[in-house]
Amino acid sequence: MAIYAAILSILTIVTINSTFSGIRSFAEFRVARDLNSSAASLLERLSREIRTAYAIEINQSSFGVNPGRLTLKTKGIGGADTTVEFYVENGNLKIKEGGVPMGALISSSTAVTNFTIRSLSNPNSIAVKTELGLTATRGSISKGGNFYSTILLRGSY
């Protein structure tokens, strides 16, 4: 009888440990998904706005510092000149279009740890190099990542 109780106890402990391991793996997956989806949507929006811009507003941008600020000159609906600005506020990367705040570009569980902008130019074109550091957190689980892009302004050549 004692042998059966010992075997049952061991099986119960193994089952409980397996369940907790599965729950933790799922939580780690959710953190990785939050990090990757925030980075993908942010870099896609940033790339699209940079490509459609015709110039960088140098006086309103901060290059080579963390957190950076990028202000792009672009054409609005109807062809009127407007600006699109990317900036970090309280750990969130936000956007302003025409001076109007449009909100955060990342999920609420993700924070910006690095947003460095560099302007690259030659006589024929202008490009923007972006260094982006993100950290996603859910409960006690946290994961960080660095993402990079270099985009050419189409209106600059």
Describe the structure.
This protein is 32% helix and 42% strand. It has 157 residues and is an alpha+beta fold. It has one domain (2-156). The mean pLDDT is 88. It has one helix spanning 2-52; strands at 55-56, 69-75, 81-89, 92-97, 100-104, 110-121, 126-138, 141-152. It contains one helix and eight strands; from the N terminus they run αββββββββ.
What are the defining features of this structure?
three-stranded antiparallel β-sheet; 32% helix; 157 residues; single chain
Strand tally = 8
Biggest sheet strand order reads: 1-2-3-4-5
Helical proportion?
A: 25-40%
| Overall outline | elongated
What's the alpha carbon Rg, rounded to whole Å?
23 Å
Q: What class would the helix/strand composition place it in?
A: alpha+beta
Topology:
Layout: H1 2-52, E1 55-56, E2 69-75, E3 81-89, E4 92-97, E5 100-104, E6 110-121, E7 126-138, E8 141-152
Antiparallel strand pairs: 1-2, 2-3, 3-4, 4-5, 6-7, 7-8
